[in-house]
């Protein structure tokens, strides 16, 4: 049995979201147990509670030895405000856990990875359990918790370390104490709700600041807003352009992103399935 604690380091979910994930686990994954921290329903402006409330809830979940994993409830924005303080206060129990999320949770995953705490994992989050398409993405994570590796990103080979981030999240972490050493890694990036000129700008920044990585893969670039003129390049052409300019091997596409097809990417050297 995997005992999973759910907290919200960024934005809140509703009791209906919590009920949906609890019902899905009870009906289809009885080998797991989920505990939704009440902080997930707090509200303080944009955030799921104040910075202190979110930090306290995260530490409650991470430092409690009765839980095997921490599953971040939702992205949005806000985990960067507490990530460094969180890893500085995590105990030995926290170091044994798996941490799952993506999008804004990339700040947390990066900070954990840099600190060598637990197993950070890019994967879909409980907030998606209310819709049919979203439920399948959530099932993918729950199957992985059960040892089923079928939901992993297909390009993982277990030989080259990998990370996966939202593009703007990764760009914002450059030159901060949260960014881990990505030398020799395959870096996977995806983006949502950004104009293509903004995607180009982000690649410009990253191509000039990333270390000597093993290569880059591009995930989904979804919900691109219409602009007053065509940019003239696709998202993949943008990635290829900046990779070529920076001497970064472009390795093709990755099945990650803000879509129901979002695949699982354990940071570092991935094993075929959890615990194997």
Automatic annotation (TrEMBL):
CDD domains to which the protein is assigned, alphabetical = Peptidase_S66
Q: Does the keyword Calcium feature in the UniProt annotation?
A: no
Keyword set, alphabetical order: Carboxypeptidase, Hydrolase, Protease, Serine protease
Start and end residues of each LD-carboxypeptidase N-terminal domain:
4-122
Q: Name one Pfam family in it.
A: Peptidase_S66
| Residue ranges occupied by any LD-carboxypeptidase C-terminal domain in the UniProt entry | 163-269
Q: Which family does it belong to?
A: Belongs to the peptidase S66 family.
Name by which UniProt lists this protein: LD-carboxypeptidase
Organism of provenance: Alteriqipengyuania abyssalis
């Amino acid at each position: 049995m995997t005992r999973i604690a759910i907290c919200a380091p960024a934005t809140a979910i509703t009791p209906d979201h919590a009920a949906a994930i609890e019902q899905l686990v009870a009906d289809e994954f009885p080998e797991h147990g989920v505990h939704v921290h009440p902080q997930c329903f707090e509200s303080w402006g944009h955030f799921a509670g104040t910075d202190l409330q979110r930090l306290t809830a995260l530490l409650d979940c991470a430092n409690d030895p009765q839980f095997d994993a921490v599953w971040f409830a939702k992205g949005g924005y806000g985990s960067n405000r507490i990530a460094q303080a969180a890893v500085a206060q995590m105990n030995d129990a926290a170091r044994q856990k798996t941490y799952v999320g993506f999008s804004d949770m990339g700040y947390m995953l990066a900070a954990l990875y840099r600190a060598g705490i637990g197993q950070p994992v890019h994967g879909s989050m409980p907030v998606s359990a209310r819709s049919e398409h979203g439920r399948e993405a959530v099932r993918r994570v729950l199957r992985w918790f059960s040892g089923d590796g079928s939901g992993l990103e297909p390009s993982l080979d277990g030989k080259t370390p990998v990370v996966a981030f939202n593009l703007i999240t990764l760009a914002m972490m450059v030159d901060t104490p949260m960014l881990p050493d990505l030398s020799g890694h395959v870096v996977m990036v995806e983006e949502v709700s950004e104009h293509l000129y903004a995607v180009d700008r982000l690649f410009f920044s990253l191509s000039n600041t990333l270390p000597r990585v093993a290569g880059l893969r591009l995930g989904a670039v979804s919900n691109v807003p219409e602009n007053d003129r065509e940019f003239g390049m696709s998202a993949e052409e943008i990635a290829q352009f900046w990779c070529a300019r920076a001497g970064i091997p472009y390795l093709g596409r990755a099945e990650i992103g803000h879509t129901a097809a979002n695949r699982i990417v354990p940071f570092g050297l991935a094993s075929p399935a959890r615990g194997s």
